[in-house]
Specification:
single chain, 6 helices, mainly alpha
């Protein structure tokens, strides 16, 4: 049975190599943008009691997860998720500052700076084994 399935749907080992690193980062950028949109507008759902903002957030997060999964086929998981998480956290914090006037204290600001520094260090000097 397993042999029949493998003959019917052959595994493409070269699929990962067919996508370029550039396309991986494009997917990562789309994942970050849709993650920011989904997380930034969660407050407007009022605990998922408003249907239109809820649908918008759910669709945005589904697109986000799709894009991040595509990015992970090219870029290593650690690099992808660290970059996605850090940039999304930073952008949603900025979104909260501008839209909801939620200013972080000095420790929150230092934490955001450390997150950004960590992502820059990871992407500039991190090596894949």
């Amino acid at each position: 049975m397993v042999v029949a399935v493998q003959k019917r749907w052959p595994v493409r080992k070269g699929l990962m190599k067919s996508m370029s690193l550039f396309s991986g980062y494009i997917y990562l950028i789309f994942a970050i943008i849709t993650g920011i949109v989904a997380n930034g507008f969660l407050k407007t759902t009022e605990g998922f009691s408003k249907i239109n903002p809820t649908i918008f957030c759910v669709v945005s997060i589904v697109v986000c997860i799709f894009c991040i999964s595509k990015a992970m086929t090219i870029i290593p998981v650690g690099f992808t998720y660290a970059t996605y998480g850090a940039l999304t956290i930073t952008a949603v914090t900025l979104f909260g500052i501008f839209k909801y006037n939620q200013i972080p204290n000095i420790y929150g600001t230092i934490g955001i700076i450390l997150i950004i520094t960590g992502v820059v260090l990871l992407n500039m000097f991190g090596k894949i084994k």
